[in-house]
Amino acid sequence: MNAASSPIPPAIPAPAASDATPRVRSSRGLVLLGIGSVLALCGMALLAVIIAGTATLQTESLARIANRTVTYRAEFGLVERKLSGLSALTAGPGILLVTATCFLIPGYLRRRGTMHGIPTSGLRGGSVLATYRPLALWAHGLWSLVPLAAWVLLILVPLRSMAGGGWPAGLREENSTAVWLALGFYGAVASGLFAVVVTSLIKKAYFLAWLRQHPDTPVDEGKGAFWRWVCFTWRFDLWLAGFGGALIGVCWIGLEFDGQQFVMVAALTGLALLLAGIIMSLNYWRANRPLGTALSNA
Questions:
Q1: Is the pLDDT of residue 20 over 70?
Q2: pLDDT band of 164, cuts 50, 70, 90
Q3: Would the pLDDT of 12 be above 60?
Q4: Residue 138: what pLDDT?
Q5: What is the pLDDT of residue 24?
Q6: Residues 95 and 78: beta-carbon distance below 8 Å
Q7: In what order do the strands lie in the sheet with 113-118?
Q8: pLDDT above 70: residue 2
Q9: Average pLDDT in the chain
Q10: What's CA 40's distance to the chain center, in Å?
Q11: How far, in Å, CA of 102 to CA of 104, rounded?
Q12: 3-state DSSP call for residue 219?
């Protein structure tokens, strides 16, 4: 099974505009990657500033920030919600990082592949099919070290330091709460991303091994609808693994706050979700889809 034999409906022919040429498409992808990289670096720098700032702020200043509220509209603008100033401040790096992915993902796809529209009918709207060259297994494995390193810096290093009486031990209660709010949230994100990347690597390696054992297996569009929906269209296997990894990565904070029961429950729940995601990913071969394709539904 390869991209050429994929049962995915053919995409709308690319327009004759200049961006249809590989060189222009590649250069635009490079620009998007550059913008996304700058935003990601700014988000990480802002996170470092927030952690250092909340650790050193006076109690009165920190209380003023925490007591301020940010009002926003949710549920399609129908509901007004309020967010504490401290939570809003902590969310700042996350907003930058999410914005960065809005540039990094299409930039990557433009650099390594193509994106075409697929007409759909009814209430489903339109969809976009992306076809790209998958990373080699070794490169995929190297990328998994990035979120792992972030988790080590955000969770493991502070915990080991605190256990030895170093930072952030000794901070006032208000400062410690603010610091661990940032460390815990972004540490959970990092461990969740690590679980997603590793599960994706297992999924890819197992699927390639299956292809080597079944090189002439015909594609049957009538089979595998459930697994296409789970493992290809919505990637529920990766979502489960991500949530499980986030729980496993952040639960260890409870050890420093006499929360052994929380650690046990969160670790077991996270492990169950992670294993469920990995088991689901091993069934990707049933989806009758090649690697190097992704589909978005509007």
A1: no
A2: confident
A3: no
A4: 95
A5: 58
A6: no
A7: 113-118, 127-132, 293-297
A8: no
A9: 83
A10: 13
A11: 6
A12: coil
Phi, psi for 186 (deg, rounded to 5): -80, -25
Identify the sign of the CA torsion 253, 258, 264, 269. Answer: negative
Q: Which two tokens stand for residue 76?
A: 């399609």
Residue found under tokens 């070794």? 138
Gap between the Cα atoms of 135 and 89, Å rounded: 36
CA distances from residue 238 to 68, 235, 244, 281 in whole angstroms, order as listed: 37, 6, 10, 8
> What is the C-alpha to C-alpha distance for residues 144 and 129, in angstroms, rounded to an integer?
25
- CA dist., res. 179 & res. 157, Å (int): 14
Between vectors from CA 182 to CA 168 and to CA 35, what angle results, nearest 5°?
Answer: 125
pTM (2 d.p.): 0.83
**6 within 8 A of 289, measured Cβ to Cβ:** yes
Residue with tokens 């493991």: 156
* DSSP H helices in 167-259: 173-213, 225-227, 236-250
- pLDDT above 90 as % of the chain: 41
pLDDT digits (tens, 9 = 90+) for 190-204: 999 999 999 999 999
The position carrying tokens 């589909």 is 295
Ranges of beta strands (E only) in the chain are: 69-74, 79-84, 113-118, 127-132, 293-297
Rounded to an integer, what distance in angstroms lies between the CA atom of residue 243 and that of residue 143? 19
Tell me if residue 222 falls in helix, strand or coil. coil
Burial class from Cβ neighbours inside 10 Å (0-12, 13-18, 19+) for residue 257 reads exposed
Structure tokens at 135: 């990373």
Specify the pLDDT at position 143. 94
Q: Please compute the mean of the pLDDT values over residues 122-139 and round it to a whole number.
A: 77
Q: What is the DSSP letter of 6?
A: -
Nearest to 273 by CA among 235, 247, 234: 247
What is residue 290's DSSP assignment? -
Number of other residues whose CB lies within 10 A of the CB of residue 157: 14
At 280, give phi and psi (nearest 5°).
Answer: -65, -40
Counting Cα atoms < 13 Å in the Cβ hemisphere of 98 gives 7
